[in-house]
Amino acid sequence: MCETAGGMGEAAASMPRPVRGAAVDPVPLEPVDEVEIVTLVDNVYDALLGDDERTRRAGSGAGVVAAPQFEGGRTTAGMIAEHGFSALVTVRRADRSTTLLFDTGRSPDAMVTNADRLGIDLGDVQGVVLSHGHFDHAGGLAGMVGLRGVRSMPMVLHPLVWTRRRLAVPGRDVEELPTLSRRALDGEGFQVIERREPSLLLDGSVLITGEVDRTTGFEHGMPPPHQAWTGKEWVHDPLVLDDQALVVDVRGRGLVVLTGCGHAGAINIVRHAQRLTGVERLHALVGGLHLGGPAFEPVIPPTVAALTDLAPGLVVPGHCTGWRAQHALAAALPDAWVQGSSGTAYRLSAA
Length: 351
Description:
This protein is of the alpha+beta class. It is built from 8 helices and 20 strands. The chain has helices spanning about 5, 10-15, 110-115, 140-145, 180-185, 265-275, 300-310, 325-330, and strands at about 35-40, 55, 65, 75, 85-95, 95-100, 125-130, 155, 165, 175, 190-195, 200, 205-210, 225-230, 235, 245-250, 255-260, 280-290, 315-320, 345-350. Strand 6 (about 95-100), helix 3 and strand 7 (about 125-130) form a beta-alpha-beta unit. The longest helix is centred in the C-terminal third of the chain and has 12 residues, at about 265-275. The protein is globular, with a radius of gyration of 19 Å.
């Protein structure tokens, strides 16, 4: 597995390439009547944000905990925010409802604690999808061990999530990132399903994109300090080939695209979803867009321009999007942009 992580052999052969036109064999994604996305973990928690017709906030009263310094010995704890991402996705078709977990946050306890404070039983989840192998999206798996229903729970991921990676920033100590363990996940009872190609889940109503075509001229991926181990040496890993997104088609509205970090590029991901499904309309984009920091700030203007042309009804940039991109997106798409926050539910229904 390590040989494929960043070497010029299989990684180069499997690299997504620009493809023009519609997919030769489009994915038959079944429209759904409703999708609800609950952000279990995000970088921000704001208890003062309000609800609207499609957004429900956790509020300040979520999670009653023991606190002896208060009269009655209790207080409300709210939601945990951390540099990570996790979302619970529930799709409804007719009278059937099914729930998936998309990423699990950074720490072992944030996701399970937030789910408990929201009254969500993670034992009811039918499957797990990992957007990629970075530890701030997989750390919460440790907190799921022992929960009801975890054993034999299917987990869909890209085979390169096991890649060893590090940050080698000049002038700073090299930081090797925690690497996900296949052996540990097997031991905990998860049914690991490795897929490079697109996957259809829940009777064809949820699409996992697999590797994403890189078609824009401005989304170049990670800078040189982001490196992967080939089995022999550390090499620049710009593409994070295991990056994939979750896509749902809401009947009469269009595509809802959920990203973890969006390492493939937000516009690349949306265009890839459009090409795979044949559905042109983007209804919503939710999740990390990885536009934070000096290396990615030049990508903000063309990303905002392209997303404005797509005219989505809802944009909830989270996690690694960065404050400059948040401000730019809010200014360009004032009716669509919504501030993300741990514990927020977004409900999108058919026309």
